[in-house]
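User: Quick sanity check before I run a bigger batch. Here is a single chain. Can you write out its predicted 3D structure?
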Amino acid sequence: MTHRLPRTIVLTGASDGIGAAAARQLAGNGDRLLLVGRSREKTAAVAKEVASEYFVADFAELDQVRDLADRLITATDGIDVLANNAGGIFGRRAVTVDGHEKTLQVNHLAPFLLTTLLLDPLRSGQGVVVNTASSAARRLARFDIADLEAEHSYSPNTAYGNAKLADILFTRGLHARHGGDGIRTVAFDPGNVRTNFASDSTSILRLAYRTPLSRLFLISPEKGGANLVFFVDGEPGITWQPDTFYTETAPAGPHRTNPLVHDDALVDELWHRSAEMVGLPAD
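Assistant: Done. Predicted structure follows.
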């Protein structure tokens, strides 16, 4: 398929798991890869392996996200693909230096902020935004727009499911507001991947991802990375459809999709609340 070469691809969560696997698969295609990770050592190692540039930012601090956006804008003259892949599930409820519940911030608010700050270079590149979501948005979410910070009810699993549902709602909101600017958006569940996911969590998922039986139902990081690359390399409107949620590389049917995804009023309200929480105008 035809792409403007070399494309500029920003990939977050690139130091490990499916992000690192995707970086390896994208290497050597003539694209300019800009890898983002929290660990300088691990991100630098992947960047060296694939001969790419790298940036370090901890999404638990929004000032680091703002600084990351500034550095990316300075380093590029347009962004063709922004792959928001960073995220995680954590243990007991924690509040970041910004005053937000950590799971919500790392998985949703930080990517929301980064994407919004990069709208100009995305527009100039007729860019694609790929958001890594999860089946947890359907299986684990108990979404309450009035309690986004989980102050009244918290569990690691529910917080993660809610944050991933927020990512899908954000994908739809981004399409509604900026699809007309040429920005194409998609959210996908990469599948249950055998990675270091949940290593910082006290959730039962931490055990599920580390038992010998897990190999029977978890896919490899390489397969998960290939699912991400499918959207990065695909042609919007041909390979995949914008404003759509996918399970791996197939459109998610009703039984795999939280019905709240189709609530346009909720999409709009979450956008406004997210903007307020990160200190941006809603429109």
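Residues 106 and 144 are 18 Å apart (CA to CA).

User: Great, the batch can go ahead then.
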